[in-house]
Sequence to fold (551 residues):
Amino acid sequence: MEKSWSEALLKTIEEHTTNAHQVQENVLENILKRNAETEYLKKFLHGSTDKNVPIVIYEDIKSYIDRIANGEPSTILMAEPLTEFIRSTGTSGGQPKLIPSTDESFEKRMSIPILMEAVIKKQIEGLDNAKGMYLLFVMPELETPCGIKARLYTTSSFLSSSMQNYMSKHLITPVEIILCLNTNQSMYCQLLIGLLQREQVSFIGSIFASAFARCIKFLQDHWEEICSNIRTGHLSDWITEPACKNPTSSILSRPNPELADFLDQTFENKSWEGIIRKLWPNAKFIDAIVTGVMSQYVSLLDFYCGGLPLVSPSYNSSEACFGVNLKPLSKPSDVSYTFLPHFAYFEFLPVDNGNVEPVDLVNVKVGLYRYRVGDVLKVTGFHNNSPQFQFVERQNVVLSVDLDKTSEADLLKAIANAKVLLDQLGFVLSTHSSYADTSSTPGRYVLFWELKTKASNDFLKLDAKIMEECCCIVEESLDFTYKSLRQDNKIAPLELRVVKPGTFDALMDFYISKGSPISQYKTLCCLKSEEAISTLNAGVIGKFFSPKTLP
Ligand code: AMP
Fold:
């Protein structure tokens, strides 16, 4: 990116955030005017363009989305032509939410990497004409009954020619490899090419930190094979997808024993602390979202990356882009995203005072705010007149290891389905809890169950087959996003740890010792405290897993 262009982009951010109020008013006026004749808006506006439209959740507009998905014209909901649906990782009734996309929303999304490039270059030197290794992957697209494509927003952007153009200028990885649906082959080739061109890599990244962690694990499992390919100049035979095989073979054009020796030595080191710096000596930063549920990967990334700055670039969703991190070098725990007022019209609901009156973007006060996307945010300050938010949590999500978002209600429903089987076999599930185990990659859900037999004096004999079936029932009852990540090996098989009677009493004792009132003690459906998890682990009498692949 030329310096003058970069400066111009930064100037636009300054202008938009300075005029935040006016920009928001214009965005709203535009939405209302343009869409006034749609069936949806006519219901509320009755010819006026006032802000007479209620705040809704997805379920309120689902019937319109379903009608469009089944072939009715999209003009019932929106005036601009629908280009595709964006498939959210959030689900409604177990199915992915479908968010309409238009040329304009697409353009806004595309502007984020370019804006962030300008922001980062201003703060980190030596990035002119820099190329990076971004570990990027696509997910299969779905089609609605009338043939409209539904894609994750990342996949949708990688498929566009403007993004492909951008990627070919900024990434060392040939775009075909990123677009290959075979994740294992794609990951292997992306890492192999990254190592072959290690000197040219100025930054490394992935969209979310979970994918970065998965690639490090993949490297642990495959480094010997990768080094051997580099030594011989011959790509492994299992790389059969032409989109991966052809471009990788042409980069791996000759045996390179010197590089293979160096890499072997580096990988053979007992500790992999700081290995990313050794492998990619010119990398200046790691670019990956490390806030929200992704913060669980920060210590792992710090360990492997040896102090390279972790840059958490932006805060997005399928519904809209929200904000960008204007201080890319801040610590993950201090990251705030500045909302860009031209991206969408924003309103917020205060979390804690029961106030249902929404607050405009420019009028939020330092404190906690929520909006119907379902995220809880904390206002940390303002950039000019536009607020900056720290991501606090996704409402109602108790378990998450990747893009999955499992609520307490989802988990309880899934466990209730397994209870039917237990009941038939004469078992009672006395109490249970869970946690997301990301100590290994991919992470997994771990359930703790305290069981007893209905004939209460019987010795508890655990039948592995039945316990494994329970794991399966729970997984099959979870939502679409969980199951597709699991099928794609981005989530490891669910683990069920059966604990001996009395273990949950020990957990209660633990919480009471920490000051929980006995009379109001409730077993948490999901645990975060390591001490609490160790208390339950101390009582484990059997561990069971779902099968490697879901049936
Ligand atoms: P989806 O619509 O499937 O892309 O999911 C969007 C959700 O991902 C958001 O509403 C957030 O809960 C989460 N998310 C996206 N970007 C970030 C971020 N930078 N930090 C924390 N959570 C994020």
